[in-house]
Amino acid sequence: MTVSPHFEFRDGVLHAEDLPLTNLAEQFGTPLYVYSRQALHDAWEAYRTAARDRDVLVCFGMKANSNLAVLNEFRKLGSGFDIVSGGELARVLAIGGDASKIVFSGVGKQVWEMQAALKAGVKCFNVESEAELVRLSEVAQQSGAVARISLRVNPDVDAQTHPYISTGLKENKFGIAIETAVAVYQHAAALPNIEIVGVDCHIGSQITEISPYLDALDKLIVLIKSLADKGIELKHLDLGGGIGIRYTDETLLSPTVLLDKVFQSLETHGLSHLQLVLEPGRSLVGNSGVLLTTVEYLKHSEAKNFAIVDAAMNDLLRPTLYDAWHSVEAVVPRENTANDTVYDIVGPICESGDWLARDRSLHLEQGDVLAIMSAGAYAFTMASQYNTRPRAAEIMVDGLNAHVVRPRETLESLFAMETPLD
Ligand code: LLP
């Protein structure tokens, strides 16, 4: 049975590329994030193929997975980066990333972050409010630099996804209402040290339908034309990230289908000279990783059966935060499914919300290793040290080789910066 092309069962054992996950769990311990290098390349290839020879800049939405090894794979493949903090900028610069391929998003950019981004020479600031625009102009003047900007407009479309990851509706904190965008662009045009280069939107995450994108695009095209009428010409159009991945049986929106439609529309409106920028996060990394965990105890209560594992909500927050579904596979599944029991897979943290999966039919014994699938995106990056739990190691598998791309944190490191008073 194939779970994904890079994580498949061979001789009854789940592998990452050519390595049995049992070996990795034994060698490095659990919980353990395991990534497939080839999966990253294949996910990138889907965008490259979709772009064909058109002017498309893919800026990896690195909040999904910002391990330097992951970033460096994408850098080598030609990716740019969508950053949302000075910290993310520092990571890109640390791997020698090209600042002219960085777009800087986020509603709350601080002065020091603007200064650092100007110094690095980022391609564009995606400005999310008029107040930010004014501050950026001031910071740019003080820095003796010109800030290239897009306005992130809020097109008020429903991305039809979870409310916490839906960002393009009027009631969301993101972006500038599309109705006021022309006026804000005119303000920008009048501000010193600001150069208008594009328009941006990001309507949400884990989107599986094309219609929200096309609705947003239609609105942006109207805006681009009104701007042209006022003498404001743009160089690029940024449609954000958001393409969903398969956690269970979702039907998928392929980058090729999306890009063909987008370019068709741009051509119809005489706008095919615009560069298209995309900011995909999840779809580049989500199914490139799994989280391995070991069953510590099985506990059978009157109402429920619990498999208590050594990973927890601090390692994978998505289930409890979004009610998200992650498939769970026994790394060495038992053949006799007649003895399957319905389990909630829970962690050791002192919270009832500490669960990773619910109502899963599995035949388990203490000591079994489980793989929580689709843990390449928003897993490690959302991890914490709650309950003084060291963040787990990250491994990158490349064929038959396993590279430690971040070791397990040591206990001492968790409190090394703290100082008790006398
Ligand atoms: N660009 C911007 C401005 C964003 O805010 C995001 C994600 C992306 C790009 C990348 O979106 P993606 O292609 O990954 O959908 N923690 C949540 C997802 C939060 C997404 C936030 N913004 C989760 O685990 O589902």
Produce the secondary structure layout.
Blueprint: E1 2-4, E2 7-10, E3 13-16, E4 19-20, H1 21-28, E5 32-36, H2 37-51, E6 56-61, H3 68-77, E7 80-83, H4 86-94, E8 102-104, H5 111-120, E9 124-127, H6 130-143, E10 147-154, E11 176-177, H7 181-190, E12 194-200, H8 211-229, E13 236-238, H9 255-268, E14 275-278, H10 282-285, E15 289-300, E16 305-309, H11 318-322, E17 328-330, E18 341-346, E19 355-362, E20 369-372, E21 393-398, E22 401-406, H12 411-415
Parallel strand pairs: 5-21, 6-7, 6-14, 7-8, 8-9, 9-10, 10-11, 10-12, 12-13, 13-14, 16-18
Antiparallel strand pairs: 1-2, 2-3, 3-4, 5-15, 15-16, 15-20, 17-20, 18-19, 21-22
Helix pairs in contact: 2-3, 2-9, 5-6, 8-9
Bound molecules: ligand LLP.
The site of ligand LLP has 21 residues, from helix 10 and helix 11.
EC number: 4.1.1.20
Catalytic activity: meso-2,6-diaminopimelate + H(+) = L-lysine + CO2
Cofactor: pyridoxal 5'-phosphate
Characterization of the model:
This protein is an alpha/beta fold and 422 residues long. The protein has 2 domains: 159 residues, Lyase, Ornithine Decarboxylase, Chain A, domain 1; 176 residues, Alanine racemase (TIM Barrel). The chain contains 12 helices and 22 strands. Strands 5, 15, 16, 17, 18, 19, 20, 21 and 22 form a 9-stranded mixed beta sheet that branches. Strands 6-7-8-9-10-12-13-14 form an 8-stranded parallel β-barrel, surrounded by 4 helices. Strands 1-2-3-4 form a 4-stranded antiparallel beta sheet. The structure holds ligand LLP. The site of ligand LLP has 21 residues, from helix 10 and helix 11.
